[in-house]
Structures are given as C-alpha cells and as structure tokens.
C-alpha cells in the first residue's frame, strides 16, 4: 500500500508537508510512521490526514487513491500547565552547524518577552498572538554542558529557559587498517577524530563488520578493535567500520589479504658477543609467524646517534651477524627490527643494545710543538701537544712519554712520563742539541712517536716583523721559503696574547705550502696578534722564518697617553709621553694628534690647524705622523696665559677619545729675570752680612776702634803731606791736664739734646767754665806745656774755638741729679757719681784702659753682647777733646774720666755721618 | 591537599555525632554547631560562584541573581524579625532542623543533576558533596542540641519526593541555583539562631 500523508500547521488549509509512505500491509496491521517537525510541536497545532492506494505490481492499472481521512489535530499546548511562559524544545540535541527553530508560548498577550542566547538577545517571528518562533542558523558548539537560551517576561521576574545541546560533527574514522602478528588475531586501528560525546547523551560508538563472514562486533574502544581469526581458510577480509552517535553515522571500509598484513612482534634476546677493537657479533631471536614464514630483519649499527652500517638478514627464528670495521674504544648501538620477508607490511618494533669496542694503540703521532727560552742560563724547552682525537686515541690515554736524546754527546736517554691530563711539559736542557720523542700511551700500547729536535742554542730568533690585515675568515699568512730542505712549516701564535699564559697555538703546514689562513674563534677585533713562521728542517729543527703582526680589525685607541709637561717657560712648554707603548694598542698607532686651545688666542699656531670637537668647541690640532715621536714642544705661546692641550693617538680606525684637556698656565715674562738677579743679590748680601758679623771685631779694630790710634790716622798723613810736615802727635805723657772746662748750660736747653745735634753749634756753649786742676798757674791762658790738637773726626766748630788746653765738658747731667753744676762741689759730686756708674757699666777688660774716649762705652758694651744698661738715646754728638790721662794723677781724674764717658753716649750712626 | 584538609576538618566537626563517648553539655553542643555553621558560611560564596560559572549564561553572567526563582519543596529562610524573635527554643531549632533536612536531600538531588550536566567538573561535584555533608552535620548537631535541651525531636521527612524528576536541563540548573542560594540563606539564619542559643546557654 502506498499512503499519502499531508501535514498542516495552525490551520488545516496551511499544508506544510506532503509525503508518501509505502509498506506491505498484512493482516491486523498497526502501522507506525513518524515525522519530525522542524518547529517544536508544542509551538503550534498541527493537523495530519492521509489517503491510500494499492501499490502492487500484480494489480493492474488504474489504481485509485482513497478519500482523504479526516484531519487529526495534534495540539501539545493543551497539556501544558499554567505557567506564564514556556520555551520549546527542551534539551534538544543538534549537530554543530545545523539550523534549529525554537519558540516560546506566553499565556498573556500583554507580556513583553525578550529572549537571549548566551547573553545575546535574539529576535524571532510571531506565529500567533501567544507564540513566537526563533530560527537559529548554523548553531555553534560552545560547551559540552549545552547552550542556554532563556526568555523573561519584563516587569514580572519570570524566567524560562532551555538548553540546546550542540554536538560536534561526527567524523569519518581516519587511518583505518588491520594487521596480525600471529595469524590468530587481527588488530584494527583508526583515528576517531573529534569526540562528539555530550553529558546526558551516549557517546559515539564503533562497529566492525566483515562482509565475507557476515560477522559484526561492537568495538570496546574508540580507536581500536580486535578481530579473532577463526581459521586459516579465510584469506581475504572486507572490513567496514561504522561510527555512530545520536545524530548520525559515518563508515569506512578496507579490503585486504591476511598474509599482506603481517606485523611481526618485536625481536628479543639481542646480545653482543666476541667484541674486539674492530669486530663484534650480534645475535637475536624473533617470534615465529606461521610455519613457513620468513622474516627479513634489519640490523643497524649506530654511532653517536647516526646509522653507520645497515645490514639485512633473513631468518626464521634466530638471527646472527658479524659486525666489522668498527673503531676501537667506541660506543655503538646495535638495533634490530624485522618484517615479513614475502609481503612487506610494517617493520616490527625495534630492540637495541649498546656496546663498546675494545681499546687499541693510538693510531697517530701527537702534534707536538715547542717553545725554547733561557731560564738562568739554561735553555728551557716547553713542549706542547694537542690531545689525540677520539678517532686516533683508540682508548683512554693513560700518560705521555717524553724521551730526550742528546745528539751532540752520546748519553743515556732521559725518559719523562707526563700525566694524561697534561698537554705539555717543560724540560731544562744544556747547550746541546736534543732529539725529543713524544708518544701517547693507552692500555693497548703507545702511539707512533712524534719527533722534534731542539738546539740548546736558540740561535737567531729575530726577524723583521711585517704587518698583515685580518679578515672575517682570519689572517692570511704567507712566507718565502728560505731553503729547499724544509719538510714543513709551522705557524705559531697566541689566541690570547694579552693573557698569561697566552694560549699558544700552532698550525703545521706541508713543505709545499707558502701561505695559509689562520682562523680562530678566539680572535677578537682590537687585539694585536703576532704570528711566527718556522721552517722545519730535515733534521726536524724549527728555524724562525718570518714574523707577522696584525689585527682582525683595527680599532681606535681607547685611552690617551699620560703626558708630562716640562720646560715650562712664558712662551713654550714641552709635552712628552715616552711611557706610551704603541705595541699594546687596539690598532697600529700611526701617529698622534696634539690639540691645543686657549681663550687668549683665536688663531692657531703654525703647524696647527683648526678643528672642531664633538662638543662643537673649536681648538687647534697638530698631527704627528711618526708613532715613535713621543715629545712635542709647544712654542710661541703668550706669557701668563692658560692653555689646554690633549694628546691622542690615532690608528687607521680613528683617534682616541678627545675629552679631557690638561691646563697649563705660562708664567710671567720677567719673573725669570727677577729670579736670576734678585736671588744672587740676596745671597750676596747675606754672605756679606755673615762675613761682617764673623769679622766684626777685626772690622772694628780696623775701621772704628774704641780708641783710635792717631798714628794710624789717615788724616794725619793727609795733614802731614799737605799742610804741616812738622806736625806731630801728642804724647800722652807729655800732656798734663790742668783744667776742666765746665760748660754752664741752662736747664731748659736740655730738651734740645734729645733731638738735634744742630743746636750744639749754635747756642749751648755760650759760657764755657774752666776748672783748673793745676794750682801753680792760675791764669794760664796761652800755650803751655799742654799740647792742643784738633780732632777732625769730631765737631769742627768746637775745635775751632781756640780754647786749647780746655776740656769742654758735656753739659749733660743725669736725670737723677737735676741740680746745677755751677759750683765745683756739685760738679765733683756729679763726676764722682758718674764715675762710679761708669765702672759698673764698662767691662772688666776695658776698665783697665787708661784712655778715656769720647766714644760711648755703650758701644763696647753692645758689641760684647753684655749690655748692663739699656741703650739710651743719643743726646748729642758734640766735640770732645781727646786726651791721655796718666794713672798716677790725683783722685779727681777717675771722676773726670767717668764723667766724660758716662755723659757722652754716642750713637753709632753719628760716627758714620 | 586542601580538599583533604577540608574533609579532615569536617570529620572533626562531625565526630561528636559518630562517637558515643562522654555526653556533652548543651552549651558545648551549641558551640560545636555554631562553629560548623560558621564554617559553612565561609564556604558558601565559593560554592555558589563555582556552581554559577559551570552553568553558562545567564547564570555565569556577572551579578546574576534571580530571587523570583523559588522551590516549593524548600522552606523559605526569610522570616520577619518579630516572628523570629518570638520563636521558642523548640520551634527555632526544629525549623533549622527541617530546613537542613530538606537542604541535604536537595543537595543530593543537585549533585546528581550536575553529575549529568557537568561530569567533567570534579571541583563543583566535590563542593556539592561537601555542602551536603555539612548540611547533614548541621542536622545532627541541631538534633543533639534538642536532645540535650530536652526538646522533642521531630521525625525526619522525605521532602524531595515532591520534586519533579522530569525537569529539563535548564530547570535543573535553576533548581541547583535555588538550592544553593537557600542553603546559604539558611546557613546565615542558623548562625544567627545558634548565636542566640550560645548567648542563652553560655559555656
């Protein structure tokens, strides 16, 4: 029968779907047919009707449709409760990307309802006054716990929602394949892809169906399934794997022959036997596959992770292979895997085993080099060698043997054993030639010897140094062979020339080589590398051929020399930096720049040119092109000026830092002259003063004795020669004093003596009074036995008075005796008193002298350094007659003498006037 | 580690229920129940936050609150102060007991719901289990207080029987929210009730 079904929505006339359903109708038939509505049935009333027709080929045409049945109404809303709001469908499961229609049913038309999907408001289509539908296109997977959609009635706090469970799309299983390891079980595996399982929903399932046998099994796992092989009869298999979940299914098939799907089990019992330095035997076992199967096994030999050898071996059950061409003392790994020899499908799993070959004697001689130096007169040879590579060591080096043989004088060989950790040794030798053999030892034996000949006499180790330029690749070093007997060359350098030790390196080169490129990871820009090229003679002796020096890249100097300023004059000074080493700089020093700047001078000196510094300031620059010229004289400078200078070296890469200038101030132009004149003068004066002081007594005797000797007076000789040749010197014994001249002097004039000697000649001696000491001649007025003389060294005015024989007495009275000296009694008293004072003042030696001088006794007291009284100011320098007073005279003379001496203290300056 | 520590603390609080050792005084039982209520109060906000975050929008939206959602099978915690103040000891304790009886059963239901809806969220499931155990602990503590005070102990009733089992996922999420919310409110009320008893029956 064929049934035609019509479905209407909302009203019968609104047919939304028409379809046919054909089935065989039996007796008492209850037929079931279902239809899925896109719109939840709760959202609208649906109607359904049908008609039928015979659909049997046996029944001839025409076949007529029956009448339509009556409409059957399906109204789910009637069964809903009284809630104000409903949302449908509830908990619907859909596939990601599909379209879904939801609806809400409101009991109150007045309610304003808004709906949201994960917080975003959605807008729908109103189906009738109470129902609105929302069509969600291509829904996306948000989370496994479902997508919440909810509606709420505004102002009423009514909230209703549904959860839409969106499932990931079920994928077709990938990489589906089956294989067997033992012809008993087939293991089928696949990649299930995305997991579509959801909470409250059953997960995806996998079913394996074999079409030839018609068997079907439900797989326990999502990515594998085991199929039991029943018998050997079935060779071909056609498997269909079907993935299924609540929303659909996917399937994939594979057709294969069982013998072509053999995947052997991993081999076992892999062993290494008879391992020597170069050979080893490998044995292993496999699980047998069937009775006639042969396995192809692949044996790999790995060293340091790389496959060195690969061998294929066909076996039934036991495998064996002899590995050869192995390196001694090397760790290897043997690895075996197997596959079906007839129909290769897959390699089995691998089994591996590590082993180490036995040691063998080192295969190569050491690379040895030497450095000869003289220590305390003995040539000392430092031997260096490079450790043997693992390839050539053939085992663990235990020690090095150094055998020293004297070539000039047969003697016993010296054998030195050097620990394996050392890469060299030091030997102290004599002035002979020695042949040195160096070998490396391991447990299997020594290496071939490395021979080097060293002469005790270092010979000429000097050679002209040549400059070379470095490149990114290193230094290109070339040389000119000196002899044809060279068996090779060695280039020697230090990787770290600034350090100690400098990490000596060397490179051996063959005899037909005349150039090489020296490269090292240690080379740095701005470091000077020195290369020495040695020629190795047939006697294995090294002779220095050439020396090279170069920089990988020259840099500008980083420091400036320490400059010393010398010979500073008002117009020049000298700069010198002799301590500056040009060899240890970051480039070849080509010369120096001398910068000079001064505020006083705007123009540059000859030889200088103007330059602008980095701080935009201007200065003068002079270039010195000779790196060995380390002095410079700044000339033509201004006196008393401040100059700033800077000396900076320069290389091909630039000059040193121009930053810190040094200030120099030129001195005054005359200062040096003053120093040259004044200093000697001061020294001369000082010398004279010292001499005068030391010879003061002599000078005094010569120039101004306390009692001048008239015979020695120059005046006398002068008078004698010019005026009166008969004039003689008075003899003291001839002179008999007879009178004392007393000068009456008013008291008021006393003050004048204090200041000026001028008053002496004008007013003081108005009335001389004479005291006659000789009573026999009372009125003696003319020349008598007393001889008068003129003392021209004293007051001439007084001498000219003509009062010969009279002794003018200084009209000075001590302050302690203010009384007038007019009466003889008073005078005598005064004299007596003064005499007594004078005795106390005069030194003992001088007190015995019988001359009384007008010169102040004070002077002698001063010069002797024994002053008894403080020096008194000179009151006058008046004339005083000199006379000799005999000791045998009456008692008054001492009083007279004392009075004279005590009352006439003269300032020294007065005498020189 | 923290989970184990929490269970250890919980067991410490529940231990008096299990042990039949020396009888405790009413004041000691009240203090014990009060401490348990405080512990429940401390964990409340975490439980609610964890629950809402696991349900998706609108539950996980910031500041989500739906006071209109109610569950008839749960006694409301809201009560006027006058009524609450006028409650006698027996009535006060029996209301707390009734509420936590219903809450413990509802928390079991919510735990089952979430095991379906959020099977991959062990933190949420563990917190729901802990909340249920605490509710049961409170139930026991209150019963012990009533016994100690010589108050009649009403017989336990099955309250969840009234809950519709055919709830949709969204309804389950809403139901869980209401249960946890009410659990919090009843915890607050229990703290207040027990503080009153603590003052009334000092140690």
TrEMBL record, chain A:
Main location group: membrane
Domain Fibronectin type-III, chain residue ranges per copy: 266-360, 362-460, 557-669
Compartments (UniProt record): Cell membrane
InterPro entries the UniProt entry points to: FN3_dom (IPR003961), FN3_sf (IPR036116), Hematopoietin_rcpt_Gp130_CS (IPR003529), Ig-like_fold (IPR013783), LIF-R-like_Ig-like (IPR048497), LIFR_D2 (IPR040817), Type-I_Cytokine_Rcpt (IPR050379)
Source taxon at top rank: Eukaryota
Signal peptide feature range: none
Membrane-crossing segments per the record: 673-694
Gene Ontology cellular-component terms listed: external side of plasma membrane; receptor complex
Protein name: Oncostatin-M-specific receptor subunit beta
From TrEMBL, chain B:
Annotated keywords: Cytokine, Developmental protein, Glycoprotein, Secreted, Signal
Signal sequence segment: 1-21
GO cellular component, one term: extracellular space
An example Gene Ontology biological process: cell surface receptor signaling pathway
Family annotation (InterPro entries): 4_helix_cytokine-like_core, PRF/CT
Main localization of the protein described in the UniProt heading: secreted
Stored Pfam families: PRF (PF06875)
UniProt subcellular location: Secreted
An annotated Gene Ontology molecular function: cytokine activity
Domain of life of the organism encoding this protein: Eukaryota
Family: Belongs to the IL-6 superfamily.
PANTHER family: CARDIOTROPHIN-2 (PTHR21353:SF8), PTHR21353
Protein's recorded name: Cardiotrophin-2
Organism: Vicugna pacos
Classification lineage: Eukaryota, Metazoa, Chordata, Craniata, Vertebrata
């Amino acid at each position: 029968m064929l049934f035609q079904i019509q479905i209407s929505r909302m009203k019968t006339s609104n047919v939304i779907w028409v379809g046919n359903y054909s089935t065989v109708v039996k007796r008492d038939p209850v037929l079931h047919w279902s239809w899925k509505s896109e719109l939840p049935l709760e959202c609208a009333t649906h109607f359904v009707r049908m008609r039928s027709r015979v659909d049997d080929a046996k029944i001839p045409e025409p076949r007529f449709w029956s009448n339509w049945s009556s409409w059957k109404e399906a109204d789910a809303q009637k069964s809903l409760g009284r809630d104000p709001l409903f949302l449908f469908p509830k908990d619907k499961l859909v596939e990601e990307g599909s379209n879904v229609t939801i609806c809400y049913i409101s009991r109150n038309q007045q309610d304003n309802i808004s709906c949201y999907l994960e917080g975003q408001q959605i807008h729908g289509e109103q189906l009738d006054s109470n129902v609105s539908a929302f069509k969600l296109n291509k829904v996306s997977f948000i989370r496994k716990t479902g997508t919440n959609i909810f509606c709420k009635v505004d102002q009423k706090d009514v909230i209703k929602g549904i959860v839409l469970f969106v499932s990931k799309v079920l994928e077709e299983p990938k990489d589906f394949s089956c294989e067997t390891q033992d012809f008993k079980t087939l293991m089928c595996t696949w990649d299930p892809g995305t997991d579509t399982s959801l909470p409250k929903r059953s997960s995806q399932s996998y079913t394996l169906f074999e079409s030839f046998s018609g068997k079907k099994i439900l797989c326990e796992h999502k990515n594998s399934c085991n199929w039991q092989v029943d018998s050997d009869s079935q060779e071909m298999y056609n498997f269909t794997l079907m993935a299924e979940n609540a929303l659909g299914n996917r399937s994939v098939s594979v057709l294969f022959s069982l013998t072509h799907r053999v995947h052997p089990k991993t081999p076992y019992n892999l062993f290494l036997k008879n391992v020597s330095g170069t050979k080893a035997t490998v044995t292993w076992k496999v699980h047998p596959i069937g009775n006639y199967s042969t396995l192809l096994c692949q044996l790999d030999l790995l060293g340091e992770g790389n496959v060195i050898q690969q061998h294929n071996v066909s076996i039934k059950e036991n495998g064996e292979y002899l590995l050869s061409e192995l390196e001694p003392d090397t760790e290897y790994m043997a690895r075996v895997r197997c596959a079906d020899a007839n129909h290769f499908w897959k390699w089995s799993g691998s089994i591996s085993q590590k082993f180490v070959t036995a040691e063998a004697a080192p295969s190569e001689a050491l690379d040895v080099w030497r450095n000869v130096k003289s220590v305390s007169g003995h040539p000392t040879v430092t031997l260096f060698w490079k450790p043997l590579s693992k390839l050539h060591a053939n085992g663990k080096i235990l020690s090095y043997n150094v055998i020293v043989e004297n070539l000039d004088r047969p003697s016993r060989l010296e054998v030195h054993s050097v620990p394996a950790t050392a890469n060299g040794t030091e030997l102290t030798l004599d002035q002979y030639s020695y042949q040195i053999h160096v070998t490396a030892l391991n447990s299997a034996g020594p290496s071939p010897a490395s021979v080097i000949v060293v002469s005790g006499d270092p010979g000429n180790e000097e050679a002209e140094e040549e400059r070379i330029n470095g490149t990114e690749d290193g230094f290109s070093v070339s040389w000119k062979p000196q002899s044809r007997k060279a068996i090779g060359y060695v280039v020697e350098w230090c990787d770290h020339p600034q350090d100690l030790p400098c990490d000596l390196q060397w490179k051996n080169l063959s005899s037909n080589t005349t150039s090489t490129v020296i490269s090292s990871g240690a080379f740095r820009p701005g470091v000077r590398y020195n290369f020495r090229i040695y020629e190795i003679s047939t006697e294995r002796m090294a002779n220095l051929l050439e020396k090279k020096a170069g920089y990988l890249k020259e840099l500008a100097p980083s420091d400036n020399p320490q400059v010393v300023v010398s010979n500073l004059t008002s117009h020049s000074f000298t700069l010198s930096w002799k301590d500056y080493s040009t060899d240890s700089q970051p480039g070849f020093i080509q010369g120096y720049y001398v910068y000079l700047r001064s505020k006083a001078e705007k123009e540059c000196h000859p030889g200088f040119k103007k330059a602008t510094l980095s701080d935009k300031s201007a200065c003068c620059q002079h270039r010195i092109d000779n790196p060995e010229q380390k002095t410079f004289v700044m000339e033509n400078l201004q006196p008393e000026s401040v100059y700033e200078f800077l000396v900076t070296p320069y290389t091909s890469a630039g000059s040193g830092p121009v930053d810190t200038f040094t200030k120099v101030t030129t001195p005054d132009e005359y200062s040096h002259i003053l120093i040259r004149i004044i200093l000697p003068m001061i020294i001369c004066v000082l010398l004279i003063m010292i001499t005068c002081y030391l010879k003061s007594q002599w000078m005094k005797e010569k120039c101004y004795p306390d009692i001048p000797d008239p015979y020695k007076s120059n005046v006398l000789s002068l008078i004698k020669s010019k005026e009166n040749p008969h004039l003689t010197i008075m003899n003291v014994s001839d002179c008999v004093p007879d009178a004392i001249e007393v000068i009456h002097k008013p008291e008021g004039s006393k003050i004048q003596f204090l200041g000026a000697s001028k008053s002496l000649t004008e007013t003081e001696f108005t009335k001389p009074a004479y005291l006659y000491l000789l009573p026999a001649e009372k009125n003696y007025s003319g020349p008598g036995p007393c001889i008068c003389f003129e003392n021209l060294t004293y007051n001439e005015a007084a001498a000219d008075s003509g009062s010969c024989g009279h002794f003018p007495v200084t009209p000075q009275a001590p302050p302690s005796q203010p009384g007038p000296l007019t009466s003889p009694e008073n005078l005598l008293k005064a004299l007596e008193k003064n005499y007594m004072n004078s005795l106390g003042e005069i030194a003992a030696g001088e007190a015995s002298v019988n001359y009384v001088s007008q010169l102040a006794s004070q002077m002698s007291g001063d010069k002797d350094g024994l002053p008894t009284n403080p020096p008194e100011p000179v009151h006058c320098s008046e004339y005083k007659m000199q006379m000799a007073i005999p000791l045998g005279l009456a008692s008054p003379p001492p009083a007279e003498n004392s009075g004279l001496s005590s009352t006439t203290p003269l300032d020294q300056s007065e005498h020189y006037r | 580690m923290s989970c184990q520590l929490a269970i250890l603390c919980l067991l410490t609080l529940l231990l008096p229920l299990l042990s039949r050792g020396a009888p405790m005084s009413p004041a000691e039982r009240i203090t014990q129940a009060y401490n348990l209520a405080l512990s429940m109060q401390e964990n409340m906000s975490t439980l609610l936050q964890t629950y809402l975050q696991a349900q998706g929008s609108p539950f996980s939206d910031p500041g989500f609150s739906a006071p209109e959602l109610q569950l008839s099978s749960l006694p409301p915690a809201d009560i006027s102060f006058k009524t609450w103040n006028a409650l006698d000891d027996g009535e006060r304790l029996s209301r707390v007991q009734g509420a936590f009886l219903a809450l413990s059963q509802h928390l079991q239901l919510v735990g089952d719901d979430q095991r379906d809806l959020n099977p991959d969220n062990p933190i949420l499931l563990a917190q729901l289990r802990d909340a249920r155990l605490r509710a049961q602990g409170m139930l026991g503590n209150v019963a012990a207080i009533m016994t100690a005070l010589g108050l009649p102990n009403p017989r336990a009733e099955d309250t969840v029987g009234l809950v519709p089992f055919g709830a949709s996922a969204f309804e389950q999420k809403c139901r869980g929210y209401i249960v946890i919310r009410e659990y919090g409110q009843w915890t607050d009320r229990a703290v207040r009730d027990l503080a009153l008893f603590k003052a009334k029956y000092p140690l």
